[in-house]
Structure formats: structure tokens, C-alpha cells
Design goal:
The complex is a heterotrimer of chains A (253), B (316) and C (407). Chain A is built from 9 helices and 10 strands. Chain A has helices spanning 42-50, 72-77, 95-104, 121-133, 149-162, 179-192, 205-211, 229-234, 236-242; strands at 4-13, 16-26, 31-35, 57-62, 65-66, 80-82, 167-171, 197-201, 214-219, 222-227. In chain A, strands 6-7-8-3-9-10 form a 6-stranded mixed sheet, with helices on both faces. In chain A, helix 5 (149-162) packs parallel to helix 6 (179-192). The radius of gyration of chain A is 19 Å and the shape is globular. Chain B has one domain (2-221, 236-259): ABC transporter involved in vitamin B12 uptake, BtuC (Orthogonal Bundle). Helix content of chain B is 73%, strand content 3%. A two-stranded antiparallel ribbon of chain B has the order 1-2. In chain B, helix 1 (2-33) packs across helix 9 and helix 2 runs parallel beside helix 4 (91-113). The model of chain C has no long low-confidence stretch (mean pLDDT 91). In chain C, the strands form 2 sheets. Chain C has a two-stranded antiparallel ribbon with strand order 1-2. Chain C has a two-stranded antiparallel sheet with strand order 3-4. The chains are: A alpha/beta (253), B mainly alpha (316), C mainly alpha (407). Chains in contact: A-C, B-C. The structure holds adenosine-5'-triphosphate and magnesium ion (MG). Residues 42-43, 85, 171 of chain A line the site of magnesium ion (MG).
């Protein structure tokens, strides 16, 4: 059974349709990439899946049960974590606290006010390990808002993967990183998502073809193709739409 | 009953329009700068006190012009040298700054004018009953208040919709970030809006002082109600502020004028309680008694059921 | 270990304080401080730690206090009997209930909406308290007597000093509890929600629930402070739950510094002290307080504690002494300037012909005395302005991390 199913999903703001009748199935363990030109609705799609926006119509099933229009925290608790295209961290908390907070729920602390964080050994060890993995160990005590841009991106990723969720959504995780930083980040993503399900929005084709098992192409809110990388590469509609050579006049102006 | 209703409506209108004069400035300032000016009613108080002092020497009419201008200039200066400095520490700091300002202005007023109520009176020329209905007088000064308020709104409406600066202000309300890109001097506009907003509050003080009495607590009395209004109306919505002002003005006025209360309700329901019932206070409440808390009750209800207010779109 | 030592020292200090300040006046000031510390710390659970700006925190203080007085009255009437030492807990629990009820709808959002609801609820309850006479006692308030309960190891709490030990003990416990709360998952998530409520939801937490927990905790500790107030003053009035008290606690927390756990404690101590000392010398103390508040918001946005903490870097670099001289050079004209302004304000306010200020005598209506004061003010202001560049320079130097020439 698929882990995530989008059925006839649509979203409009006022009169503008941003997502149009999207159908998509993601299998457990799949690494899925979503590509498409700017403004195609990729981030919006993520916002719908993760509960940031309500859907206009259609449904989203995660592990067979509907999750659309549930709150983000409920969806997160079901095992669906995400990162954001625009860095979205806790600016005044230290890097260490950012990661530790991201771990709290998954490690069963819930809203506890009877555990002392300082005494939570397993939690703190896990936090240190994660800091090591995302390469921010040396910066652990700095307020997150004072990190350099690429470091904030690494932290963004770290917060998303911390909970060890079954399904992870990454929205342009390496955008704005230097070449080496991006290579490291990709290696990290590969490592932490091993055995998990990944959906990723990414503009860098090398990374997409390197990581993904399957690719969907989103143009003007519609999925025009969804297939294995080799087929996508040769698909003429994709080349036309995505590389933006000739924008067809027809239906959507 | 009928004459009670008519006078209650007229009085509610006077209060409502007065409240709107404060609420409109507060709304403009909030929409432009994102600051809820806690000290807004303090400028209203300053208007009344300035006008009182000026009227001692020059009479009421010059005070009507000069006092609001003075208040507006003071407001502009406070924006320029105080608020702007605090701006970089964030909205909470700005709110706290205006809160401190309200506190400070109240103390300063007591320092300069003392604690006692000032004998600030309406001009003699308006000291006659405009009409008499069912043996009750309607003072000409209240009609004058209505006239001034409406004149101000028409002017405000005209400025906002027909002039260049008005268009810029409207643009700044809906698209705060783009206006700067268009090359307008945004800090100057801010200062001007703050000055005009506080000046309007000052004008409200000038005309309200003789009716609502001029004393150091007058800002406190009105201040939180004006806050309630802009929140009920929906932060940043001028139309909402107008509706909420009139609503609150009329509501309070009717509540005060009515002689209904819990006893009537209980009678009607056929229930009665002993005098020593633990909730006796509640069973004996009357509408005039709870008139002062009605705005707050309304506020809490509106915020629970419609957090963005009656007409609101934007949130903080 | 180090932290543990701090708490021990704190305990020793509060036990020993009355030995050094034993007059009736100073004990009553100490009592006020203990109450203010608990109240201000509870306020900071909202604003500093949770990002919720409240204009109605006195509601929980006052409701807790009123309930505590009623509990005292119950003991007096012989309805039940328990030790007065537990009265603050009664206040706390009632504050908690009230916060649970009000928080259930007010913590939806932080920001302006929360601030406005808190204001509305505060005004609503303050106004209702004048109407619901049987619980709030109208204008006169409700008073009780703390000496009816069973004695506690020989203490009957007739004297203020005994009340001090009770208040100090509760203050210590409450402070410790509030500190420990900041070290728990719920406490840390309160910071996270303050910083970024949206992201908190994407790591599994309901921002609203996190806020509600902080809010209820804050209500509880405010109620404890109210209960202590009830024991100390044996009377509560509408004053204790209205906007003035709410404003006061905001002032204490802000002046002390919102960003540090100890900030509100500093604010509570300093302001209680300033209030009692200033109100002793001048009727204009509220005016000075207002000025102080506005200046703090403008120039020391992180409060007194934040100002002290700014010196950590120079301290660690061992360059704090670079600052001593410039500070003195700035502080002296600064103080003279401030004092000369105060003198003018006081002189304008006095109704007597002879005005004595700091031992100097002025003729309060004479142009000479005005001339002298204005001259002093001007001269000191110029000296102050002149000293500032040096101070800035020294500050930059003291914070500069030098590379190379260090051993
Ligand atoms: N809250 C909103 N209200 C109105 N329009 C919106 C909203 N959010 C997104 N849009 C519009 O939806 C369209 C798709 O935006 P989206 O961010 O999903 O694109 P994207 O594919 O992620 O683009 P990019 O590659 O630039 O990140 C854009 O035209 C955007 O303006
Ligand atoms: Mg996007």
C-alpha cells in the first residue's frame, strides 16, 4: 500500500487555482523528487500535505488515513516531518536547543514539566550526535539567528530530520549553499533518509537525478509527468515546460 | 419610553462619534506602523488640558484650533525621538514604550495642572438648549460636537481618497513594504501620520473636555474603551472602527438609560431568590450598573469567536 | 554544582537579611520585595519566556489574594482550621483555576490579540469586582486577620518579622520552582513557541497548548504572590487586580530585564526600593518612575540585568578596567545633570518660599536660583555630551578581541 496518496487535490487562493487536481502515490521507502518552474506550486503542495494550508478539494491519505485539514502538529506526530524553503528556525534559542526541541516530541517528552532537560541523558546524547552530523557542533551555543545563511540551512535540515520521521519532506534543502556544502548536505540527506521515504523539491538537476527514484514534474499546479528519472529526462513535454523554451499559449494564461 | 430612547440615541451618537475620532487616529497609526498606541487617549487628555489653559487667555475658539495642533506637534516629536528609537527592538517594545508614555503623561499632567478637576467649560455662545423634546433639553454644545466630528470624518475621508498623500497612506496600509521602494520618505510619512492621529485625539479632547470633565483620570477612562473599539472593529479597519465606535457608544448609552435588570428578567421567568442567596449580587444587577463593563464583555466575546474583529483581515 | 551553590547562598542571604535590616520599615519593605519577586517572576513566564504580553496579570494576583483573604476569614469563623503558612497555596490554586479558564480562550494567539484579550479581561474583572460586592467587598475591599490559625512551631504571625520568614520561604520555593520550570520540556518549548510558533507546530507541539501551560503556571505563581499579599496586608481591594497593578508588574519585569531569569527579581527589588525611598522624599515619585520607565525602554531595552550582562565580554577579556575611568567621567556630569533637572522640577512644584535640595537652599521664586540651576544643568549636559565619544571608544576597545599580541 502506498504511504502517501494525493487524490484530486486542489488549492486556490481567492480565484487563482494554484494546485489543480493533483494525483500522486508515494510508496514506502521511495525517494521522490518534485521539480517544476518557479511559482508552479511545489511549496504550496508541501504546505497542503504538512497541514500548513487547508485544501480546497480532494484528499490526502497518509498510511491510509486522511490527514488533510488536520493541524501541522497532529500530522507531524503521525510521522511526517518537513523542512522549509524559507529558513524557519527558532532564532533566539541556541543551535543546541533548536535541535533538542525538535527531538522532544519523538522522544516522548510531550508537554512534560516534571522532567529536567539537563538530566535527560539519551535526549542530550542524541542532540549532540545530530549536531555532529549536520556539522554545527562547534556552533552549538550560538543563538540560531546569528548563524550564517548556509549554517541556518543545515540547521533547518537538522530540525526536519531530528524526529526520525518515516516520511520527510524537504523543500529546496540545498538552495543557496556552496558546491561543497551542497555535496555534504546531499550525503547527509542520503544517510539520514536511508530506509525512509523522502519527497524533495529541488532545482539542481544533478542532485535530483542522483537522489531520486522517481520524479514528478509540476507545472502551473498540474503534474504533467511522474516517472523514473530516465523516462523523465526524455519526456518532450517536460523539456518544453520545464526548460521554459516555448510556453504554450492555450489553456492557462 | 420613547423620549428616553431618542435622548439615549442622541447621547450614544455623541459618544460614538467622539470615540471614533480617537479610534480613527489609532487605526491609522496602527495600520501604518503596526503600533497600537497605548498612549492615544493620553493625547486626548493633553488636548483637553491645553485647550483649558489656552481658553483662559484666548477663549475657546482659538483653543479649538491651537490645542490640537500643539498636541499633534508633540505627537510627531515623540514619534521622531522616542518611538523610532524603540522600533528596532520590536513591536512588544513599542507597545511597552507607549504604555510607559501613557503613564508618564498622566503624571506630567498632574504635575502641571494638579490633581483636581479643571473648570473647563463650553463657550457661552453654545450654552443654550438646541431643542426641547418632551420637556427635556438637548444642549447645543452636543450638537456642535456631532457637527465637528462629522466634519472631521468628511475631511479625513477626502484626504484619504482624493489626495496624493492619502493614496500613499492607503498604499502603505495594504502594502507596507512597497511604498519605500517607490521612493517615498516613509519615516516622514510615519511622523506625519502619528502627528495627525494624535492631533485628532487632541481635538477630541478639546471638544470633550467640557462635557466629560477635565481631570487626570480622563485618559484612563476612555483609553481602554478606544482600544476595545479598534480591536472589536478589526485592527486596521477604519470602517470597522466607525461601526464599533457607534455600537459601543449606543450600547452604553442605552444601558445607562434603561431601568431594566436581572430582577426584571427573573420576574419574567417567574424565578425568585432569597436575599441571602450567595449569588445575590448577580440576581440584583441592573443594566445601568453593568454599562461600564459592556465594552469589555463585547471585546472578550468578539475575540473568542472572531479573533480578527468584525471587519478585520490582517492580524498583528 | 555551581548552580547549586548559588541557591544555597540565596537561601542564606534571605534568612540573614532581617539581621541587617531589622527596623519595622525595612522588614515591611523586605516583605513587599518578596511578594514582588514572586509576582514579577510569574509575569516573566508569560512575557519573557513565552512571548505573551499581558496587560492583565494582576487578575490572577488579585483573585488569588481575594480567595486567600476569604480563606483567612473562614479560619477566623471556625469553618475549618489550617496553618496560615498554607494560605499562599490557596491563592495559587485559585489563580491557577482562573488562568485555566481564561487561558482556554486567550492563548489561541500571542501578539496583539493576546495583549488585547488580557487587557479586556483585566478591565472586565476589575470593573466586575466593584459590582460583585459579596466576594470583592466593593470599594472597601475585604479584610481578614492572619493570627487565628493554629500556630506554626510557635509562630502566630502577629509580627511582620514572622511574616517575613513565611514570605521568604514561599518566595524561595516559588523562585526555585519557576527556575526549574524553565529547564523542563514545557518550559523550553515555551521559548520555542515565543520565537516561532509556526515551526513549533511542525515539530509536534501545539503552540496553543504550550502557551496555555505557561499561562496556567504564571497564574498559579501570581496567585501565590496574591496569597502572600493577603497574609502580609490582611486586606485586598479592587486596586490589587486593576490595570495599575498589572502595569506595575510589567514595569518591574521590563526594567529588571526580560531576557534573564533573574531580571524580574532585580526589577522587583529595585523598584520596591525606589518606590519606598522616593515616595518618602517626594510626592512626585510616580513622575520620576514614569520617566525612568520610558528612558529604560528607549536606552536599555534589555533592562538593568541586560546592561550588566553586556559586560560579560569585557570581563572575560579581562578589560573591564578600561571602562572604569570613562564610566566615571560620564556618570558624574550625568548625575549632576539629572539632579539639576530634578531640583528644577521640585522647585517648580514646591509651594514654600525656601526650597532645600541636597542641603542647598534656594529661593523658590527667585530668578537667581533658577539661573543657577539652569546654568548647572547646561554645563553638566555639555560635559555629558563631550564625554560620550570617549565612552564609546573605550567600549569598543574593551569588547575588541585582539589577535596576535596575546601570550
Ligand atoms: N498564501 C498565498 N496566497 C496567495 N497566493 C499564494 C499563496 N501562497 C502561494 N501563492 C501563490 O502560489 C503560487 C505558487 O507558489 P509556490 O511557493 O508554491 O511556488 P513554488 O513552486 O514553490 O516556487 P519556487 O520554485 O519559487 O519556490 C505563486 O504564484 C504564489 O504567488
Ligand atoms: Mg517553493
Amino acid at each position: 500500500m502506498s504511504l502517501l496518496q494525493l487524490q484530486g487535490l486542489s488549492k486556490q487562493f481567492g480565484d487563482t487555482k494554484i494546485i489543480r487536481d493533483v494525483n500522486l502515490e508515494i510508496q514506502p521507502g521511495e525517494k521522490h523528487a518534485i521539480i517544476g518552474p518557479n511559482g508552479a506550486g511545489k511549496s504550496t503542495l508541501f504546505h497542503l500535505i504538512s497541514g500548513r494550508y487547508h485544501v480546497s478539494s480532494g484528499s490526502i491519505l497518509f498510511k491510509g488515513s486522511p490527514i488533510h485539514n488536520r493541524s501541522p502538529f497532529e500530522i507531524t506526530r503521525l510521522g511526517l516531518a518537513r523542512s522549509f524553503q524559507v529558513t524557519n528556525i527558532f532564532p533566539l534559542l541556541s543551535v543546541f536547543e533548536n535541535v533538542r526541541c525538535a527531538l522532544l516530541w519523538s522522544m516522548g517528552y510531550r508537554y512534560s514539566f516534571w522532567h529536567l532537560l539537563g538530566k535527560a541523558r539519551a535526549l542530550n546524547t542524541r542532540t549532540e550526535e545530530l549536531l555532529e552530523e549536520i556539522g554545527l557542533h562547534a556552533r552549538r551555543n550560538l543563538p540560531a539567528g546569528e548563524l550564517a545563511y548556509a549554517e541556518q540551512r543545515a540547521l533547518e535540515l537538522g530540525i526536519a530530520i531530528a524526529s526520525g520521521a518515516e516520511m520527510i519532506l524537504l523543500d529546496e534543502p540545498v538552495a543557496g549553499m556552496s558546491h561543497t556544502e551542497a555535496t555534504n548536505a546531499v550525503a547527509l540527506i542520503r544517510k539520514v533518509t536511508a530506509g525512509k521515504t523522502l519527497i524533495m523539491v529541488e532545482h539542481d538537476m544533478n542532485i535530483v537525478f542522483d537522489l531520486a527514484d522517481r520524479i514528478s514534474v509540476l507545472v502551473y499546479g498540474e503534474i504533467i509527468a511522474s516517472d523514473v528519472p530516465s523516462k523523465i529526462r526524455g519526456n518532450p513535454r517536460v523539456q518544453e515546460a520545464y526548460l521554459g523554451e516555448v510556453v504554450p499559449g492555450g489553456s492557462d494564461a | 419610553m420613547f423620549e428616553v430612547m431618542i435622548f439615549a440615541t442622541l447621547n450614544g451618537l455623541v459618544t460614538g462619534l467622539l470615540l471614533f475620532m480617537l479610534a480613527s487616529g489609532l487605526t491609522l497609526i496602527f495600520s501604518m506602523m503596526g503600533v497600537l498606541n497605548f498612549a492615544h487617549a493620553s493625547f486626548y487628555m493633553l488636548g483637553a488640558y491645553f485647550a483649558y489653559s489656552i481658553s483662559l487667555y484666548l477663549g475657546f475658539w482659538p483653543a479649538l484650533i491651537v490645542a490640537p495642533v500643539l498636541v499633534g506637534v508633540l505627537g510627531g516629536l515623540i514619534e521622531r525621538y522616542g518611538l523610532r528609537r524603540v522600533h528596532k527592538s520590536g513591536h512588544v517594545a513599542e507597545l511597552i514604550f507607549t504604555f510607559g508614555l501613557a503613564f508618564l503623561i498622566e503624571e506630567a499632567v498632574q504635575f502641571f495642572w494638579g490633581r483636581a478637576t479643571k473648570d473647563y467649560r463650553s463657550p457661552d455662545i453654545l450654552d443654550f438648549p438646541l431643542f426641547t423634546l418632551f420637556g427635556q433639553n438637548f444642549p447645543a454644545y452636543k450638537a456642535f460636537m456631532i457637527f465637528i466630528s462629522i466634519a472631521i470624518f468628511i475631511a479625513l475621508y477626502f484626504v484619504l481618497t482624493r489626495t496624493r498623500i492619502g493614496i500613499i497612506i492607503q498604499a502603505a496600509i495594504t502594502h507596507p513594504h512597497t511604498v519605500a521602494n517607490l521612493g517615498h520618505n516613509v519615516p516622514l510619512i510615519f511622523m506625519a501620520v502619528f502627528g495627525v492621529g494624535t492631533g485628532l485625539a487632541g481635538l477630541a479632547g478639546v471638544i470633550a473636555g467640557p462635557v466629560l470633565t477635565t481631570f487626570p483620570g480622563m485618559a484612563m477612562v476612555l483609553g481602554s474603551i478606544v482600544f476595545v473599539i479598534v480591536v472589536i472593529g478589526g485592527l486596521g479597519s477604519l470602517a470597522g472602527a466607525l461601526v464599533a465606535s457607534l455600537l459601543i457608544g449606543l450600547l452604553q448609552s442605552y444601558a445607562i438609560a434603561s431601568d431594566l435588570g436581572m430582577p426584571d428578567l427573573l420576574n419574567w421567568l417567574g424565578v425568585s431568590f432569597e436575599r441571602d442567596h450567595p449569588l445575590n449580587d448577580i440576581w440584583r444587577l441592573t443594566l445601568p450598573q453593568i454599562a461600564p463593563i459592556l465594552p469589555y464583555l463585547l471585546l472578550v466575546l468578539v475575540l473568542i469567536f472572531r479573533p480578527s474583529g468584525l471587519f478585520g483581515k490582517r492580524e498583528s | 554544582m555551581f548552580k547549586f551553590a548559588i541557591w544555597i547562598i540565596f537561601a542564606i542571604v534571605i534568612v540573614l537579611l532581617p539581621q541587617f535590616f531589622s527596623s519595622l520599615l525595612s522588614v515591611s519593605i523586605l516583605n513587599q520585595m518578596a511578594i514582588a519577586i514572586v509576582f514579577a517572576l510569574s509575569y516573566n513566564m508569560l512575557l519573557g519566556q513565552g512571548g505573551m504580553l499581558s496587560f492583565g496579570h494582576a487578575v490572577y494576583f488579585g483573585l488569588g489574594g481575594f480567595m486567600a483573604v476569604h480563606a483567612l476569614l473562614g479560619i477566623e469563623d471556625g469553618n475549618y482550621s489550617f496553618s496560615v503558612t498554607l494560605i499562599p497555596l490557596v491563592g495559587g490554586l485559585f489563580g491557577l483555576l482562573a488562568a485555566l479558564f481564561i487561558g482556554s480562550f486567550s492563548t489561541h494567539k500571542a501578539g496583539t490579540v493576546f495583549a488585547m484579550i488580557s487587557l479586556g479581561v483585566g478591565e472586565l474583572i476589575a470593573a466586575s469586582s466593584l459590582i460583585l460586592v459579596s466576594f470583592f467587598g466593593g470599594e472597601a475591599g475585604v479584610s481578614g486577620d492572619r493570627t487565628y490559625g493554629p500556630t506554626f512551631f510557635g509562630y502566630d504571625f502577629a509580627q511582620d518579622l514572622q511574616v517575613y520568614y513565611l514570605a521568604a520561604a514561599w518566595m524561595f520555593i516559588a523562585t526555585l520552582a519557576m527556575y526549574l520550570f524553565t529547564q523542563t520540556p514545557a518550559g523550553r518549548m515555551a521559548n520555542a513557541v515565543r520565537d516561532n510558533p509556526e515551526r513549533a507546530e511542525f515539530i509536534g507541539y501545539s503552540a496553543r497548548r504550550v502557551r496555555l501551560i505557561s499561562f496556567v503556571m504564571a497564574g498559579f505563581f501570581a496567585g501565590i504572590a496574591g496569597g502572600l499579599f493577603a497574609v502580609n496586608y490582611e486586606i485586598l481591594t479592587e486596586q490589587n487586580l486593576n490595570a495599575v497593578t498589572s502595569g506595575n508588574v510589567l514595569l518591574m519585569a521590563y526594567i529588571g530585564g526580560l531576557g534573564f531569569f533573574i531580571g524580574p527579581m532585580v526589577g522587583a527589588v529595585v523598584l520596591t526600593l525606589v518606590n519606598s525611598v522616593l515616595s518618602h522624599y517626594t510626592t512626585l515619585w510616580m513622575l520620576y518612575l514614569g520617566i525612568m520607565f520610558v528612558l529604560t525602554v528607549m536606552f536599555l531595552p534589555s533592562g538593568l540585568t541586560g546592561f550588566l550582562m553586556m559586560h560579560r565580554t569585557p570581563w572575560h577579556l579581562g578589560k573591564i578596567r578600561l571602562l572604569i575611568k570613562p564610566y566615571i567621567v560620564t556618570a558624574i556630569p550625568g548625575a549632576v545633570f539629572a539632579l539639576s533637572l530634578v531640583a528644577m522640577v521640585e522647585m517648580a512644584h514646591t509651594s514654600e518660599a525656601e526650597f532645600v535640595f541636597l542641603g542647598a537652599s534656594f529661593n523658590s521664586s527667585g530668578p537667581m536660583s533658577w539661573g543657577v540651576l539652569v546654568a548647572i544643568a547646561l554645563a553638566s549636559f555639555i560635559a555629558l555630551r563631550r564625554s560620550l565619544p570617549q565612552l564609546r571608544e573605550a567600549w569598543a576597545q574593551a569588547n575588541a578581541i585582539e589577535t596576535g599580541d596575546q601570550p
